């Protein structure tokens, strides 16, 4: 440290290595405190474990290279996660389409079964109506024959 005396000459004072060591210790303590506070805020989260793992892996790399390394690593993770999301979305779409397809097939089959049943019932109703008409016709013919036979029997009885 240089000081100017009254005479104009500068005097260099020796640096006390003990005071310098104390300042460094305080600086280290402050950094440790800050990192401890950051860790405590992340403890229990997946970010903490990921952060510590990334620190351990990238500890030997230079600061600029370390940033590139971390960026590339996060970019790769992001790409992998995006691929996984896309795969899951595709699976979900397939599942939904298969579910819809199955539902449509079942609905179509039930609709066809109901249509067939309705057609069969309509056919039975038409047959019943035809049979009913035949029955009424035969009944009226039978009544007419009975009347005719009774008239003929009465006439033949009178002829004797």
Question: How would you sum up this structure, described in words?
Answer:
The chain contains three helices and two strands. The mean pLDDT is 78. The chain is mostly helical. The radius of gyration is 52 Å and the shape is rod-shaped. Strand 1 and strand 2 form a beta hairpin. A two-stranded antiparallel ribbon has the order 1-2. It starts with a strand and ends with a helix.
Question: Which properties best describe this structure?
Answer:
single chain, 160 residues, mainly alpha, two-stranded antiparallel sheet, 3 helices, rod-shaped
The number of distinct helices, counting runs of at least 4 residues, comes to: 3
As a percent range, the share of strand residues is under 5%
String of helices and strands: EEHHH
Shape: rod-shaped
Strand order of the largest sheet: 1-2
Radius of gyration: 52 Å
Largest sheet: 2 strands, antiparallel
Low-confidence stretches: none
**What's the overall average pLDDT, rounded?**
78
Our measurement of the CA-to-CA distance between the termini, rounded to an integer number of angstroms, reads 171 Å
Report the oligomer: single chain
Determine the fraction of residues in helical runs and give it as a percent range. Answer: over 70%
Kindly state the number of beta strands: 2
Query: What structural class is derived from the secondary structure elements?
Result: mainly alpha
What is the gist of this entry?
With 160 residues, this protein is mostly helical. The protein has helices spanning 17-42, 46-58, 63-159; strands at 2-4, 10-12.
Mind sketching the topology for me?
Layout: E1 2-4, E2 10-12, H1 17-42, H2 46-58, H3 63-159
Antiparallel strand pairs: 1-2
């Amino acid at each position: 440290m240089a000081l100017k005396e009254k005479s104009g000459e500068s005097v260099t004072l020796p640096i006390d290595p003990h005071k310098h060591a104390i300042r460094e210790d305080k600086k280290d303590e402050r950094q440790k405190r800050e990192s401890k506070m950051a860790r405590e805020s992340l403890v229990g989260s997946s970010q903490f474990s990921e952060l510590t793992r990334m620190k351990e892996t990238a500890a030997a790399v230079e600061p600029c290279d370390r940033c590139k390394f971390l960026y590339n690593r996060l970019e790769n993770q992001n790409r992998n996660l995006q691929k996984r999301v896309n795969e899951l979305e595709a699976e979900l779409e397939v599942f939904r389409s298969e579910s819809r397809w199955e539902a449509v097939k079942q609905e179509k089959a039930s609709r066809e079964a109901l249509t067939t049943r309705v057609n069969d019932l309509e056919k039975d109703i038409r047959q019943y109506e035809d049979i009913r008409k035949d029955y009424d016709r035969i009944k009226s013919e039978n009544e007419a024959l009975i009347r005719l036979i009774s008239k003929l029997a009465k006439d033949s009885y009178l002829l004797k």
